[in-house]
Amino acid sequence: MRSKIIACGGLALVSSYTKNREDDFKYVRWVNTWDSQSDGWLPSKQAALENLPGISISPEMGEYLEECLVEEDVKLEVIVEGEYFTAELPNINAFVSGEQNQEVILTGHLFEQGVIDNAS
């Protein structure tokens, strides 16, 4: 979808998509990243060069925007302040010796937003 938007001269993507529109009508779906790479996690250098922001809005705001578009052309002003840089993502590692020759890995989200994260 990114390449099609860029080819058509689009400057951003605005999405009100959510899996359960009725229950989440007033809520904004959080998306990890809107990137040109298919791994869908950390932003890539290529995405930074494309400079195509993805903006998530609630289904309620999406319906309002669609109603406005029926009446007239709509112009959105989007200000994105961000920075791409090389850095390390810190993680915690621990190893406890046991009697069996097995390993168990436990993980949790340290850098996710909100109290509704599945690791909270």
Question: Could you characterize what this model shows?
Answer:
This protein is mainly α and 120 residues long. The chain has a domain at 2-71. 21% of the residues lie in helices and 5% in strands. The protein has three helices and two strands; from the N terminus they run H-E-H-E-H. It has helices spanning 2-7, 45-50, 59-71; strands at residues 13-15, 54-56. Strands 1-2 form a two-stranded parallel sheet. Helix 2 links the parallel strand 1 (13-15) and strand 2. The two termini are 32 Å apart.
Give the secondary structure arrangement, pairings included:
Layout: H1 2-7, E1 13-15, H2 45-50, E2 54-56, H3 59-71
Parallel strand pairs: 1-2
Summarize the structure.
21% of the residues lie in helices and 5% in strands. The chain is mainly alpha-helical.
Task: Write the H/E string, N to C.
Answer: HEHEH
Shape: elongated
* Number of discrete helical segments: 3
| Overall mean pLDDT | 80
Q: Which class do the helix and strand fractions yield?
A: mainly alpha
Strand order of the largest sheet: 1-2
DSSP strand (E) fraction?
5-15%
**What is the rounded distance between the termini?**
32 Å
Query: What portion of residues is helical?
Result: 10-25%
Radius of gyration: 20 Å
Would you report the number of β strands? 2
| Major sheet attributes | 2 strands, parallel
Q: Point out poorly predicted stretches.
A: none
